Amino acid sequence: MGSSGDEYNLDDIVTRRHAGVRKNLTDHQFVFLWVNTYAHIPREQFGNLVKGLVGFVKSQGSPISFLSHLGADERLMHSLSWYLREIYTSITSNPEPLHLQLDTDVFELVVLLSEGMFVVEVSHHGEDIDEDICTCSFLLDAIGEISRIADVRGPSQLLARVCLARVRWSLLKLCYTAFEKKMPTVGSGEVPHFIRHTSRYGFRLNGRHPIGVLLATITGYYDGNRWTHRDTSSLLPLHDDACCTDWKSALTLEGLTHVIACNAFSTVAYLLESTDVQRENVENVLHGFFFRVSTWNKTLNMLETCKQKMPSSHFTSVLRSAGFDEWLEPGSKFNIKPHDGPNFKFLTTDHAKRCGPHCVHLLKELAERVNFVAYHAANVTRSSTEALAKGESEVQPGIPR
Q1: Residue 132 carries which DSSP code?
Q2: How many angstroms separate the CA atoms of 211 and 171, rounded?
Q3: Contact assessment for residue 244 and residue 342, using Cβ atoms and an 8 Å cutoff
Q4: What is the DSSP string of 197-242?
Q5: How far apart are CA 184 and CA 207, in angstroms?
Q6: Cα 256 from Cα 222, distance rounded (Å)
Q7: Whole-angstrom Cα distance, residue 365 to residue 294?
Q8: What does 286-326 look like in DSSP terms, one character per residue?
Q9: Distance between CA 46 and CA 117 in Å, rounded?
Q10: Is the pTM of this model over 0.70?
Q11: Diameter of the chain by CA atoms?
């Protein structure tokens, strides 16, 4: 399995014994390398395989064709899901020290694989395609394990949450393509059944819209064996309205825009409530996240029609915690810098690997798409009503006012 001169194989690549790999392998060359090498890499080397595979795929420019092929590999996806399960078991049985620096490669691999998942099925909708190139259902199990890690407090929690957010970006892009191809969407009554079926061995889209897969990452709960549907969204809402609080709105093209906004907002909220060590652990997985948000700006402009909707309590709470109290005032231009506070350094440090200023920009983009005038008026009305109620309760019986 060794290499010499210009000869190399995937084992050399992933174990970093060979540094002179030429760029831009063809699909055929990559498949040949993968098929003839992966089967010979022992299971105990899976961690090294993940690390090397991430570096190799990125060095090739992360081509979707490579990622789709990897996502269709049943043995690899099964090993990946078990590897992540072992991580989950480890952190739940032995809580991680808060200062722990994490190995993020497996989370990066899941993000990369999500960019190629179900792409073949959607891009070739209506055509006969080889089952062997369809996304393996074990990849959904791997994502399920990520969702379980995201529920465990500790250094890995933010990493898993950001990983899921990146997976949703990939699925959102796929869903937009599916709408363009006029793929039949899933009815709200079919969603629970669809999500349950994602856990079945050999699950395939079979011409159905991938919105059900996206919803599994929003309303789904993974217990280690199967996905089940819950009637609530796991995303923090931007608007105080069903457009952001009711998961059913995601079944429409316009509703997907709100999912984009809520996914972005939730990620910023999680970053703000995390420690510096947790933020350092997500730098590689977070890479490109804000760039991807910026590519959705044209789509987010659809939210201009929702400016009459009030911000959710979650959004106003995050703005306050970030030191942007003035942004809540009617007529604000959202250009006031944050006050001193626990996140001041994070939000104001402009550094290549620091995402704080990007969070500020994103919060501004979202703040421009809610109605703070209505929010302020509602608060004034609520305060007046509460004051009146309090005054009436203090009036003694029998004493005229």
Answers
A1: G
A2: 8
A3: no
A4: HTTSTT---TT--THHHHHHTTTEEE-SS-EEE-SS-SSPPSBSSH
A5: 8
A6: 23
A7: 10
A8: HTTHHHHHHHTHHHHGGGGGGTTSPBPHHHHHHHHHTT-GG
A9: 21
A10: yes
A11: 102
Counts for the chain of helices (H) and strands (E), in that order = 21, 2
Q: How many Å from the N-terminal Cα to the C-terminal Cα in the chain?
A: 95
Integer Cα distance of 75 and 46 in angstroms: 12
CA–CA gap between residue 164 and residue 170 (Å, rounded): 10
Q: In the block, which residue shows the tokens 């789904």?
A: 220
Amino acid at 267: T
Other CB atoms within a 10 A radius of the CB of residue 35 amount to: 12
What SS3 class is residue 122? helix
Q: Which is nearest to 235 in space by CA: 264, 263, 256?
A: 263
pLDDT band at 73; cut points 50, 70, 90: very high
DSSP state of 338: P
Q: Exposed e or buried b for every residue in 147-179, given b needs 16+ CB within 10 A?
A: bbbbeeebbbbbbbbbbbbbbbbbbbbbbbbbe
Amino acid, res. 337:
K
CA distance linking residue 362 with residue 265, whole number of Å: 8
> Any residues with CB less than 8 A from the CB of 306 and at least 6 apart, and which?
239, 241, 243, 258, 369, 370
**How far apart are alpha carbons 35 and 255 in whole angstroms?**
41
Contact 378, 358 (CB under 8 A): no
Residues 6+ apart with CB under 8 A from 197: 203
Asked if residue 308 has pLDDT above 80, the reply is: no
What pLDDT score does 131 carry? 82
pLDDT tens, residue by residue, 202-238: 899 989 999 999 999 999 999 999 999 999 999 999 9
